[in-house]
Amino acid sequence: GAVMYGTYWCPFCDLQRQEFGKDAWATVPSLECDPRGIKPQPATCAEAGVSGYPTWVIPGVDGSASVTQSGLLTLDQLAKLVGVDAGAGVGVGAGAGDDAAARRP
Predict the structure, then answer these.
(1) Distance CA 92, CA 2 (A)
(2) Taken in order 81, 56, 12, 22, is the CA torsion positive or negative?
(3) Measured over all CA atoms, what is the biggest interatomic distance in the chain, rounded to whole angstroms?
(4) How far is CA 38 from CA 62, 64, 83, 94, 101, in A?
(5) Distance between CA atoms of 85 and 71, rounded to whole angstroms?
(6) Residues ≥6 apart with Cβ < 8 Å to 45
(7) What is the pTM of this model?
(8) pLDDT for 33-86, tens place per residue?
(9) Would the N or C end of the chain have less CB density within 10 A of its end CB?
């Protein structure tokens, strides 16, 4: 599934989390890219080519290439990238990632 790469200090990452809401965000795979953050994974972020925050990486389906999209996305925009109906749920929760990693308490 889709994974969001972000940092604890990024205001757009915080807005992205708010777009989902607290309960839904708890199911979204995300990675903390700042080495000073909680459970940081800067090497994974670098390997993914992340250069801005937030960045979404959406795996391709049926052998197609992954899609990388940087910037704040609406749920509708994200649903289109993932290939689901936004009314049915964005469906980004299936996949690797630590949903708490990009959040600060």
Answers:
(1) 5
(2) positive
(3) 38
(4) 34, 33, 31, 22, 6
(5) 21
(6) 5, 31, 33
(7) 0.78
(8) 999 999 999 999 999 999 999 999 998 877 788 899 999 999 999 999 888 776
(9) C
